[in-house]
């Protein structure tokens, strides 16, 4: 019998630490195929997988598939290139065209042919070596395998090694016999190549064309060790009988870091491996078995592993520095368990404590069991309560207590220290008791289904009720003196000034069934619940109570982080423990969960790790740049929020809302990471996205513009146009009626008004032109002022004269001037576009005819001032330049001459040669001052409009100078002897 007991005890000594969790993806589970060729992580945080005929991008939740490439061969293989430079290339088998992955997108590029002049023959077959694993085959038809590093290239050919320095192009042949089969043991760290020599138990090291042998851990040279190396990631793994180590090279020394033990890796063919440091995940890709993601856990789960017994755990006590002990006699460490004494399986595991002598006290079969320390807990006594049922057993604040019930009556027994046979006091209670806290020397907090009863030991009665109708599960006092309550299905509370304050719930309300709270050294509260373990900084909660508008963000740990079961257990005493070595221990439905709080990481994405680049509109995938335009009549749109995050998405509180939409609210983004739009009213919106990027609780925000296009009849401009059109029709109707009534009596005046209106409209249109174009329109008004003013003056004289001959004379002058003014207005459109016209006219024009046109316009006006205009230009002299520009120049100069000459004459002459034509316009008027002549002449000689800084001498001549510049002409101003002004216009042929 003793031998059998020994055998049973030995069976219980087992290791059951849970060091990792595993996710598996195959064709049955979201992968398009089971063949994984290579794995790499880009600079933006996304994982890329190469497969047969396609590339996958993984962000922690979803796979994005890229497959429609214009390639003849789609058998993709290994990645190479530079992650830091955002230039990752994946080979296909033909190696004629490759895929470049940059800016989170793959695209086809031409393969750059490389020459390898240092081989034995310039025509050999060369193969780049970028990865080494158990699936690599080194075939004989390849003449040379080469490894390209920053400083040079190593060629492995003809059982030898040749090194070519990149800078000097020097070729060095190493004095080594190196058969090709040794490449299976090759790996690279930086600029160092290592080759394991199993026979000599050393490593061959190659560095810049030199070699040496170095000592290393036996794992490197063990013939049972399998080596994995990938150049683009720089990662090297050593795999030995299921144990996976990561190799690193620092300060000239190799070192191994143990990651985990995965026994199946020896049975499975591993084609690709990648270890992600931040979330501590190991990716293993197989050519036949798909993808496995092994997540290293900061938690350990310890089980008893007894046959035909469950693993449900409740109360336990700290035992030693790093373990706990249950009433079943099982001692749990973080990675194993052992049996200390024989005890039957217990179904009553909720209450246990140490007495003053170190004896184990617990409840069993409606009795109090006391196991004695001095017997190794093998002997025990029992104490029963006649016809009463024990509900709970407590030790708190130096008091030993038991709660009992008797026919719906409840009592609390207080014992004389650890003498359970001597009762000091019996307290009758109205309700059951589930938890007890000794608040101070006088007060006991008794928690039950009807809140907390405050019992005074000195007064021997309940003196206060706190939180009535609140089903209290646990009363926990943290080191700062704050008292926290957990309840049955009603959340957590803070007890402040004898009042209960509700703690904000988590987003899924899992903390409605919180069990126990432990506080670590950094003031973080660790809360067990029926659905995961939660972490939150205490200051966040206290701050949220003062500012309720701030969201309270909890970090939730689940099976994904290493638990066997998300359901923790409570309603016991104690519900959790802090060990001497700093470990926290929480009971769960499958074992005890051990962890050291400061070693448990909370993983968050960086502030910039969010991209809005894809959308699916009515079933069609589109690529986004800076915004999204949804055409009118769209049915639905899915906007993808790409964020590389490899943990529980709920922990970063990824949310989005549409700003500009009525009653817009934050929407939780699910694992598919989509924001859906449907039946959105036309308009411009901002998609506002937020997430947590650290444990501080502050959100990172990013906005993305979205515009929903409207039908034309829904637009505000259309509505304004309709209203404006109605008003316009009404106004036009009134205007037409008014004009009709005035037309008969004011024909001439109406004509002039109409022309003036056209000029004004032309002026308004030209306002959007350059600043000089505006000035040009003003000059047009300036040019028409003289004849219009003359007509108005003659009209006034006509009304005042009764003499028929004089009236006939006035009518004749008005007629001639109006006729020339009419002709001038016919060319007004071309006149107003002078600034836009180029001097590339092909037709020739006679100078005489152009001058005559303007002479006729101003002749009657001059005659009224007793001034005569003479056109002595050569009748046969022609120029091939812009007609309208010349007319505008002549118009302005003759206009100025007429205005400033009375009782005189204006003489226009011409001269020419093979290179130029010169037109002289001389008047005998008041003339220009010397300062004005100098100013305008200097202004003409300065080419370019940037020099036209106008003085207050009038706008017309400035315009003339600018127009002369357009035809590469020159204008100069001189004194006319004996009086007046002489203007010379010089046109180069």
TrEMBL record:
One of its GO terms (molecular function) is phosphorelay sensor kinase activity. SMART domains: HATPase_c. Residues 779-989 form the Histidine kinase domain. PROSITE patterns: HIS_KIN. Its EC number is 2.7.13.3. Gene3D superfamilies: 1.10.287.130, Histidine kinase-like ATPase, C-terminal domain, Immunoglobulins, YVTN repeat-like/Quinoprotein amine dehydrogenase. The chain crosses the membrane at residues 711-734. Residues 1-19 form the signal peptide. It is an enzyme of class 2 (transferase). InterPro entries: HATPase_C_sf, HATPase_dom, His_kinase_dom, HisK_dim/P_sf, Ig-like_fold, WD40/YVTN_repeat-like_dom_sf. It holds the Pfam family HATPase_c. Keywords: Kinase, Membrane, Phosphoprotein, Signal, Transferase, Transmembrane, Transmembrane helix. This is Signal transduction histidine kinase.
